[in-house]
Amino acid sequence: MTIGKPSRTATTLTIGMLALIATTISARLLSAERTATETTTKLVCEMVENYHVSQEQIDDDISSRLLNRYLKVLDPQKLYLTASDVEGFTKFRTQLDDLLQQGNTSFAFNAFDLYIKRMKERVTRAHEIIDAEHDFSVEESLATDNDKLPWARTQAELDDRWRRRVKYELLSLKIDGTELKDARERLHKRYKAIVTTAGQTEDNEVLEMYLSALTHCFDPHSSYMSPETLDDFRISMELQLEGIGAALRAEDGYTTVAQIVKGGAADDDGRLEVGDKIIGVAQEDENEFTDIVEMKLSKVVRLIRGKKGTVVKLQTKKADTGKIEVYELTRKRIELTQSEVKGEVIDLGERLDGRRGRVGVINIPSFYRDFRGAQRGIDDFKSTARDVRKVLKDFDTQGGVDVVVVDLRMNGGGALQEAIEVTGLFIDKGPVVQVKEQDGKIKSHDDKDAGAAYDGPLVVVCNRLSASASEIFAGAIKDYGRGIVVGDTTTHGKGTVQNVMPVGKQFFQLVTPQKRRGALKLTISQFYRVNGHSTQNEGVPSDIVIPSMIDHMDLGESFLENALEFDKIEPTPHQDYKLVSADVISRLKAASNDRVKKAAKFREDLDKIEDYLERKQRKSIPLEESALRAEREEGDSDDEEEQATVEESKVVLRDGHYNDELLSIAADYAELLRDRRTAGNR
After folding, report:
1. 479 catalytic, yes or no?
2. Beta strands of 386-441 (E only): which ranges?
3. For the chain, how many structural domains are there in total?
4. pLDDT tens per residue across span 329-387
């Protein structure tokens, strides 16, 4: 017997068998993925029908709304799909409910595939339009009311829509001082990145978009979270993650280091710098780097994150030299301190002319809580209430304060339990919020710990983006007569409670327990103030309003689709601390209005607000250079105001006329209460 090369027949047979095995494995994997998606979809439908506060069923009406909603998610500006594309989907208008109940999501993926196809076609045409000549002296406009904009019926109509869009973007860059050649280059890169990023959308992301479009048909705050999104949600609630400690951003196809987090692995190592481009990632046991150039940022983040103590290797292009370096970093647990409660004592004499006193300011960016840490019995698990208590103790160690300001601007809410516990720091004990369950029963959630951590004058500052748990706190302080609410006309108006439920947790007999199917953030109940009023749509009105641009923007529950209605229930007995009265509010308002009228900065604000409201009524943007330039100059101040408001949530209390007025109101309030106590003791 001769040992040598195998015969051609044997080779062919071997290759054929391998191909068959590979095909079988691939088919099994595909089948397993399809089965997993079907099971997840069925479970989501069952959970929505069983647990959503409306108890509404997934029927033909929901199907019709889902069709409209999903197409709006895919193509909100109506730039890619045509009227004929949309008409092709109308046969599913009353079928999607039946398909979903069967676990069939083929419509979602087919629609997404067509959307990607159309995107590639339109962007190819956009590249041609970018290089075409444009006359910026012609009087024409770009429509901005996308809801009233019909789907384009012809290719010529769609081409004109893209021509106006590209012309607007070129003109905007030109007005900002960019040379036309550079503007064209930037747009080419921008549109290339749009196609690249969209093309990397994974099946789980499409499923998340589709199932969230379904839940949004019930209310604006219910959504489906994929396993990856659930991880991000936990990080936001626990204020900690495990990784290298670097904030990243996508920039011209590269993943660029935007910030090094103090105390993280990258900070300890010291070699990775802001501006460096990460071009490859490998795990500790891998010899080959995964090329991440042009990779979607969310995918890059998943590659770099990992359990503390494990090693990740980064192939990096240095910002200053362009040299390629390889860094091995050991991941560690990072505390996200920039998002936690912060406090500061402000001496009014150093901030406001002619005023005396000390104001303790507490900034609460969100009502965070490490639920897993609490469940495990960890003594120092992350908690908003604990951090607020620490700040209040710190105020005492610094000699005390005359009044406390709790800043909830931009605070979108968080954990209900934290809202209750934070409220409990300012009242003795009693009901904080009432919750109406699915069966209509009302349950009171109380602060049961006797005693308050602080019982002096209290000011709560809110804006249109203070929502949910923020509104529970502000509403309770108002109803107890415990303090005053200052800021925008009212808060956001989110009066519903969401619960995050792992998909399948209630139905373990149907699924493999270790399978990660994501979670459903579902609206399960409505909350009400102790006075019986819902915050839904109407929010918590301020006792004293300070003029701001954000108060006039279309922000709030009332502007969201499928928002639940405002209603009332019976009030529940609660204490009145009698620290607020009609006379006190009247005097504070009068003093504030007088200061605002005399302040040049506030007069400028009011003029800007008037200009903004006028522009807000327009449904188009001019594409003639002089007109757009004039409008842009007016709008720049609005952008600065909005940015300044955002920045206020990142520091304790930044300098500025708005915050100075806030401090003046707080000082006035403390003085009024002090005078009242003095008069009462005579």
Report:
1. yes
2. 403-407, 430-436
3. 3
4. 999 988 777 789 999 999 999 999 989 999 999 999 999 999 888 888 888 899 999 99
CATH number of the domain bearing residue 318: 2.30.42.10
Marked catalytic residue, from 85, 97, 479, 543:
479
Same domain, yes or no: 583 and 661: yes
Q: Which structural domain, as residue segments, surrounds residue 184?
A: 16-51+57-216
| Residue 468 is a catalytic residue | yes
Which pTM does this prediction carry? 0.83
Give the range among 77-81, 264-268, 469-473 with minimum mean pLDDT.
264-268
User: How far apart, in whole angstroms, are the C-alpha atoms of residue 190 and residue 392?
Assistant: 48
Within-domain flag for 3: no
Tokens 């800043």 -> residue: 407
315 and 349 within one domain: no
Residue 267 lies in a domain: yes
Active-site hit among 174, 494, 521, 608: 494
* Residue 279 and residue 314 in one domain: yes
Per-residue confidence at 36, pLDDT binned at 50, 70, 90? confident
DSSP for residue 202: -
Q: Which candidate in 468, 534, 649, 664 is catalytic?
A: 468
Are the C-beta atoms of residues 351 and 667 closer than 8 Å to each other? no
Claim to verify: residue 345 and residue 206 sit in the same structural domain: no
Query: What's the rounded Cα separation, in Å, for the pair 533 and 570?
Result: 8
Q: Is residue 328 part of a domain?
A: yes
Do 485 and 542 contact (CB within 8 A), yes or no?
A: yes
Same domain for 631 and 529, yes or no, is yes
Does 517 fall in a domain?
no
Does 317 participate in catalysis according to the annotation? no
Q: Taking the chain, what is the end-to-end CA distance rounded to the nearest angstrom? A: 120
The contacts of residue 401 (CB under 8 Å, 6+ apart) are 345, 358, 359, 360, 395, 456
